[in-house]
Write a structure and sequence with these properties.
The chain is of the alpha+beta class and 203 residues long. The protein has a single domain, classed as tt1808, chain A (Alpha-Beta Complex), CATH 3.90.1570. The protein contains 5 helices and 14 strands. The strands form 4 sheets. The chain has a 6-stranded mixed β-sheet with strand order 4-7-9-10-11-12, with helices on one face. It has a 3-stranded antiparallel β-sheet with strand order 1-3-2, covered by helices on one side. The chain has a 3-stranded mixed β-sheet with strand order 6-5-8, with no helix packed on it. The longest helix is centred in the first third of the chain and has 18 residues. The mean pLDDT is 91.
Length: 203
């Protein structure tokens, strides 16, 4: 992502600009950020994951949304487009055009080199202010690895990860199981022996 320079915008100005734009932008603390395009591997992981969740959730109380649906973090006034968001129960939206989702139960982000630090740090800190959010899932593009941060009763976040194509991870908030073989179908992964170990830091 790259900031549109030398000007600060109100939320109303951002929303008006976004409704007229053919490209997606994030908004945070008066700045507007153009979202970069996804790699083929990112798109495959996104599509595989959304398909798996859609199949598992069909007919139930939870509904998955793609990255075309914007989320508003009301406490910090962040507007963003998660790769996948899931709502259990009635979805709540703003009255903007297009509307923004207010109450995701689970959010999934597919990590990219340019956004990984942001997804783990500032973005996650913003997401934590969503009272509705119960789980935050990060999917690596560089290894068969899925990380899940799960909200506890005391508002702490429990970290769990699944590693390897034979692994699975349970998403408690939406009662689904994510199989890594499904997530990484047709995805070419680099040699994992050349990669640094995963970090569980959210700073």
């Amino acid at each position: 992502m790259s900031a549109i320079p030398k000007q600060r915008f109100t939320e109303a100005e951002y929303l008006a600009m976004e409704s007229a734009s053919e490209f997606k932008h994030e908004y945070f603390q008066g700045e507007i950020f153009a979202m970069s395009g996804a790699s083929p591997e990112h798109d495959r992981i996104f599509r595989n994951t959304l398909t798996s969740l859609h199949i598992q959730l069909r007919g139930g109380p939870c509904e998955p949304f793609s990255d075309d649906i914007r989320v508003r973090v009301s406490a910090t006034r962040l507007y963003t487009y998660p790769d996948i968001s899931v709502v259990c129960g009635e979805a709540e939206f703003t009255e903007d055009n297009p509307p923004s989702l207010l109450n995701p139960t689970l959010i999934v982000e597919v990590l990219s080199p340019s956004t990984e630090a942001y997804d783990r740090g500032t973005k996650f800190h913003n997401y934590q202010t969503l009272d509705s959010l119960q789980e935050y899932v990060l999917i690596s593009q560089n290894a068969a690895r899925v990380e899940c941060f799960r909200r506890q009763a005391n508002d702490a976040w429990l970290f769990e990860q699944a590693v390897g194509l034979d692994a699975t991870i349970d998403l408690h908030s939406i009662q689904c199981t994510m199989g890594l073989a499904d997530v990484y179908e047709k995805v070419t992964l680099p040699d994992e022996t050349m990669l640094p170990p995963p970090s569980s830091s959210t700073e």
